[in-house]
Amino acid sequence: MIALLTRDLRLAVRAGGGFGLGLAFFLIVVVLVPFGVGPESGLLSKIAPGILWLGALLACLLSLDRIFALDWEDGSLDLLATAPLPMEAIVSIKALAHWITTGLPLVLAAPVFGLLLNLPDAGYVPLVISLLLGTPALSVIGTFGAALTVGLKRGGLLLSLLVLPLYVPTLIFGAEMARRSIEGLDATTPLLMLAGITCGTIALLPFASAAVLRVNLR
Amino acid sequence: MPDLGKYAEAVLSSYVLSILLVVALVAVSIRRARKMKNALEEVEKRGKSNG
Amino acid sequence: MGSIWEYANPKKFITTTDRLLPWVSALALVALVGGLVWGFFFTPDDYKQGSTVKIIYLHVPSALMAINAWMMMLVASLIWIVRRHHVSALAARAAAPVGAVMTLIALITGAIWGQPMWGTWWEWDPRLTSFLILFLFYLGYMALWAAIEDDDTAADLTSILCLVGSVFALLSRYAVNFWNQGLHQGASLSMDKEENVADVFYYPLLVSIAGFILLFIALVFLRTQTEIRARRMRALLARERMK
């Protein structure tokens, strides 16, 4: 299992896609928003948590099709399927690798990008916590979507169409938690809901992803 | 025709749009059903004549 | 009359529905025309909402069917996963476009109704928002069906998507409820009119709902037949190519 994880991580780093591309995309989204809505700092600081969440979500989405695509093309996915490891474990490892290469850098970069958007001081800690809690769910849900579309030639657009509606609850609770904390409201409920969604998806969704992958490898 | 008052536009447009959508859905379903039925019959006939 | 599973046989399904279809369609037509004509011509205006209350005969039934269609797809998907009856998977496929159109009707009539009542075409009201999300789910489901060539693979994948999607759709419903209250401190715009409609509006509404349900059944019968035939044709063509 650890060997698979390190292999995936090494591949992601060597390909240069994992860390760099997602972060660069995130940065571009953050830079483009003021061009779109105007440079007024009051407005920007108000929508900052939402934009940062949305940017992280889209950056996450961007790298989803790479989770299985390379392994599918060179046939190593078939090898993995016959390995003694259960498919659920493989899927979970893949999701974890995706999170480490994409989700974690986004979480770490979010406070820096928050500066660009004039994020209020009270917002930094809640934003990082909410992203830290929420991005694993994004990776796990994304892995499910990637497993669904793995055999398709032009799966990229379909993948977004399938995954984005599934991201709605995570986005709502994540952004809501950051926003409430900034406004000084009680943020316990969204925090708990976000944590619940993440735990639930980590616990249950790998079974669905594994089932889907088995169908696709049939 | 009942007097719809100042909201006539809203009421009429929602009726027209909904009925159009339903009719379109029904028409598409029926057309596809017919086409498929004929096409299948043809293929089945071909399959029988060729043994 | 054997067990219900007899109807899982595609041939049996086609012969049975062929016999039922004219009746169901006729009833659907009668109920739909009856309910809508009754509602449109012979009900009074609401004292607050004026004539816009007449939109209820389209809005509520279509919204109801939008959710029920998804429920039916969920049940059909479960049956496919557990018992692997092809008719079940194909029925789910057949129902999806119908459900999507119902969702669209509910959204459109909702927007048209909202314009004079709330002064805006679109309000991020929890119910409207959930319906928009439901519509996205329908689109994704249909797109996945269309994208996969092999029938059984497509049936497997879409039914799993339907299960997972149902859980997330439910979650979104609660999330959206929570989210908007967070903004507006309790919804000031209640759409709960069906809870307090008077009898004059209630009976034509019931007829109209029955019409929508029958319409849905008729369409699902017809479209499932088409899907069964399409599947059979693909199988026959594949066999021809083998020769």
UniProtKB/TrEMBL annotation, chain A:
Locations listed in the record: Cell inner membrane
The organism's place on the tree of life at top rank: Bacteria
Summary of the function given for this chain in its UniProt record: Required for the export of heme to the periplasm for the biogenesis of c-type cytochromes.
Protein name: Heme exporter protein B
Record PANTHER family: CYTOCHROME C BIOGENESIS B-RELATED, HEME EXPORTER PROTEIN B
Membrane-spanning segments: 12-35, 47-64, 96-117, 123-150, 157-178, 190-213
Keywords from the named record: Cell inner membrane, Cell membrane, Cytochrome c-type biogenesis, Membrane, Transmembrane, Transmembrane helix, Transport
Protein family per UniProt: Belongs to the CcmB/CycW/HelB family.
Membrane topology: Multi-pass membrane protein
From TrEMBL, chain C:
Cross-referenced Pfam families: Cytochrom_C_asm
Domain of life: Bacteria
Principal place of residence: membrane
Membrane-topology annotation of the record: Multi-pass membrane protein
TM spans (from-to): 20-42, 62-82, 94-116, 128-148, 160-180, 200-222
Localization in the cell: Cell inner membrane; Membrane
Keywords: Cell inner membrane, Cell membrane, Cytochrome c-type biogenesis, Membrane, Transmembrane, Transmembrane helix, Transport
Annotated ranges, domain Cytochrome c assembly protein: 21-184
InterPro entries recorded: Cyt_c_assembly, Cyt_c_biogenesis_CcmC, Cyt_c_biogenesis_CcsA/CcmC
Entry function: Required for the export of heme to the periplasm for the biogenesis of c-type cytochromes.
Family: Belongs to the CcmC/CycZ/HelC family.
Identification of the protein by name: Heme exporter protein C
Species: Thalassovita aquimarina
Gene from which this protein is expressed: ccmC
